[in-house]
Amino acid sequence: MAGWTSPLRIVAVAGFALAAIAPLFVPSWATLVALILAKAVVVLGIIVLLQAGQVSFGHAMFFALGAYASAFWGKYIGTGDLMVYLVLGATISTIAGLIVGLFVVRYREIFFGMLNLAFSMVLWSLLEKMFHYTNGADGIRVARPTVAGFSFTPDAFQYVILYVSLALALIAYVVVQRYLDSPLGHMLKAIKSNETRLEYLGTSARRVLLTGYVLSAFLAGVGGVLVGVIQGIATPEFGFWTKSGEFVFIAILGGFGHALGAFAGAATFEIVRYYASAQLANAWQLILGVVLIAIILYAPSGLIGLMRRNRPREGGE
Amino acid sequence: MRAGVASKRNLMDSTLVVLAILDGISYAALVFLVSVGLSLIFGVLRVVNVAHGSLYAYGAYFAATLSIAVAPISPWLTYPALIVAAVVIGVVCGGLIERFLLRPVYGREEVLQLLITFAVFMIMDNLQRLIWGVQPIFASEPLKLLPNIEVLGVNYTSYQVVLLPLVAIATLIGLRYFLRRTLAGAVIMAVTEDREAATAIGIDATRVYLITFMIGATLAALGGALALPTTSLVPGMGTDMIVLSFAVAATAGLGQIEGTAVTALMIGLARAFVIYIQPEFEVLVPYLLMVLVLLIRPHGLFGVVTTRKI
């Protein structure tokens, strides 16, 4: 450990400080930054799975569960509190993650990805077709919740949700990075490098992967609640396979060698989308696709990898 | 995909059953073409092509452009137009994707190969909107040229219940014959079995990959081109098709050609019956089947478990 002076630490501290302060001067950034942080929480979960070499093309299902949990609360019970939404969304997605996880951790690589995709598409079609309960493709409005009992005006609320997202993202970042550095995290990496050897050491690879899977489902659920509240709506699109692809994309873009990659990726992705959809409304997806190809071909360890490559020998991570 | 068939819910049950079967067969024929392309590409290249649905959509859109151009000359020219469109899209788009995007990442992690095709999907999806717009496009000449036929008391277009299944069967037999009885097919099988050994005896594996990808892409585009007369082209048609063909190919077992045909028929029929019984759950059917099958047999219904290579 290079302590507090390692370059990634500095970037992390600077980045989070920027996220906290910049929106105070440019109000239109508040929602953008909140969205970046919320998405990054989801992507942290994808990064956890990528350590084991497993890519899920179905994590949008946990994301959608988080968003719909708050939406249903608003629809059937009435205006809730953000804390209630978060606890509810996180609990539901964690339980779902445990159930789905019990099945999918038996498979690897393409079969793992496929099974996740299949589960998520089942959820998506239910959300889309159970019109009576879910309003179909129109989605359900997520009413602006109170926060710790206080209700806010829309202007104030965008800052409240920003700082809530920031706090949660910081906690998630620290927890995930700790997890990756812990023995459990290293065992996760061993699934990718040599699973058989891991089993010979007397560890259950499935249990190790299940732990990571449930954690990633939990993070996706929290992110889902936040995005649902920030955007004020939950739609089946939240659970569609392209959404899952987007999360994996952000993870690769940022680089999955470090938890910070989630934030670097999410910031780049959302900023490109925000400005490209304003300037070139018809071509932002095209631009992102080209960026993704360029990253894969020329910078496979993502933005974080680029940063590390430029400063290769500073104390060692 | 049920052009010309009005809702006949109030008719007697036997008619409904026949109708559902015919719907299922014509739908299965299209789904088979797309899925078998996906399966073939995976079987040989070990790459799941996420852009496969886009190739399907491009096949359809390009076929629309061509048939609208040739229809004034003679409506019969729309048939060759469909085929030409599929081949052009398959060879050009498929060739470009394989040569310039997939080839650099073959040795790399599987995740990256998957994501390259995801990026291609994003780009193609966006370009499709830029080229052909977002308004629905119709071009149903080929459907109208062929007469309707009576099947057990049900009036149906022969394009859907005769031509489409014939093309699907011809593709199935053709692929089987090509892979099992011709030299080129044997070469492809050899590369699939063991790329290194095949290269050692002088097979150009790089070229085999390129050609296989082009064939797979052409099949996707052909599925799209043949779907054109029966449906309206809308943005997002490729996005839906990729997961569907994926579900079929995975349920069958990736790389299983005959299995894909059987599974496509199963899913096509199941979907058609669900449409008549409980239409809301139409989209659910393929995914539910996929989940169930993969849980019990992760390598698919017809897949063979291979021992791990170390």
Structure description:
The complex is a heterodimer of chains A (317) and B (310). In chain A, 76% of the residues lie in helices and 1% in strands. With 317 residues, chain A is an all-alpha fold. Chain B is mostly helical and 310 residues long. Chain B has helices at residues 13-45, 52-70, 78-102, 110-132, 141-145, 158-181, 183-193, 195-200, 205-227, 237-252, 257-277, 284-296; strands spanning 148-151, 154-157. A two-stranded antiparallel sheet of chain B has the order 1-2. Residues 1-9 of chain B have low confidence and may be disordered.
The tally of strands of chain B reads 2
What's the architecture of chain A in CATH terms? Orthogonal Bundle
Question: Could you say what the CATH topology of chain A is called?
Answer: ABC transporter involved in vitamin B12 uptake, BtuC
Strand tally of chain A is 2
- Described by the principal axes of the CA atoms, the overall outline of chain B is globular
Rg of chain A to the nearest angstrom?
19 Å
**Adjacency order of strands in the biggest sheet of chain A:** 1-2
Top CATH class of chain A? Mainly Alpha
Secondary structure class of chain B reads mainly alpha
Helix content of chain A: over 70%
Strand proportion of chain A, as a percent range, falls in under 5%
Low-confidence stretches of chain A: 312-317
Shape of chain A: globular
What's the tally of helices of chain B? 12
Calculate the terminal CA-CA distance of chain A, rounded to whole Å. 6 Å
Please state the second-level CATH architecture of chain B: Orthogonal Bundle
Structural class designation of chain A = mainly alpha
The gist of it:
The complex is a heterodimer of chains A (317) and B (310). Chain A has 317 residues and is mainly α.
